[in-house]
Each structure stands twice: as structure tokens, then as C-alpha cells.
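ok so I'm stuck.
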Amino acid sequence: MAGGKNYNGSELFLMASTQTVEITRLLRAWGGGDQAALDQLAPVVYGELHRLARRYMHREDPGNTLQTTALVNEAYLRLVDVTNVTWQDRTHFFAVSAQMMRRILVTPPVLAPLDGGEATRHRSTWTKASTPRRCGRGS
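replied:
not stuck anymore, here's the structure
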């Protein structure tokens, strides 16, 4: 039951298929330079991106301070900066998204000391006595 209605298997398949076609259409429009398509695409793919991120975060060390939503947001920011990509379809987009998330998780964050302190690496997590900030995003 979805949205208060009973759906049989073929109706659910049709709904999923329609969404797949819509995502592919929006991806291709965005790839062609249509900014409005990106604006429409973001809310449609967010749930799946969050599910991907949650799956990757469950595999991380308990000490990892990155939140699932932050992983989604970072991957999204990197994806919208991608140029010269011809999105084939929904599967291609989510495969690139998954790869982007894995890269974010294996690449340590770049820390810039705010007060002249020194950023140090502790196990697989970057730590600093004072509050660090990410470089390159304007904090």
C-alpha cells in the first residue's frame, strides 16, 4: 500500500519505470545545459542518494564523524560540478554517485587551522585541538 492506495505488482513496476524514464530525461536535459532540469532532478534522486550514503556509512568506523546527510551533500556538490559527462540513464548517474561517495570516504578531509594550530591525523580521522574548517568551500 502506497499513498493510501493498494497497488499490484504491475502498477508498482509501471510507477518505477515511469520514474526511471523521468530521471533519465532530466539527466539528459541537465547534461545539455538545462539548469531547470537539475532543479527538478535533485528532489527526485535525493532519497536514493541518501540510501546509498547510509549503506556506505554503515561500513565505516564508528569514530567517523561524517554524517550520512553530509556525505550526500558533498557528493551532490561534486556531481553538479561535473562537466563533459553525457548521462546515459538513471543507472549511470547512481553508479557515478556511488563512486563519488566511496572517494569521499577514502579521502581524508583537508583541514586548515583557524588559530595557527596544527592539524594532525589520528587513526583514520583528522583531529585538531581547535575547530577545523574544510578548505575550498568557503566554510
